[in-house]
Known about the structure:
By secondary structure, the chain is mainly alpha-helical. The chain has one helix spanning 2-143.
Amino acid sequence: AGERQADVLSRQVSKSSTESQDLAREREVLLDKLRAAEQVRFQLEQTREGLQRQLAAADGQMHILQARLEDSQAEQQAVQHKLALEANRVGELEGLLSGMRTNQFKSNFSEQHTADRAGSLQARNTLLTQQAHQAPHACKTLLT
């Protein structure tokens, strides 16, 4: 009976030793998995921090671009307003030019008319002067 009990105890010790070794191996596997998980967590944390920095930089760039867009829109409105003013000015200048051309035409026409009239009056004056010079001679001819 003592041998049997010793044999049972020996088997239990052997079984416990095997279970202990199995648990130690399982513990090592779990520790390796834990270390790998910690490494993945660390890498993910670094990636997250990098992405947060990129997001902050992109957000800052977006604000800069938004401000530039607003400036460009304001400048576009100013240029459109200036263009409208210049278009109005062109219309005014075209109207003024048309009026000046009309006045120039009228002036040229009036000058031509005056020149024609002066020429005709001068021709008449010349004719009358000639007749006046010939009148005494014609009177003498008539009297004789």
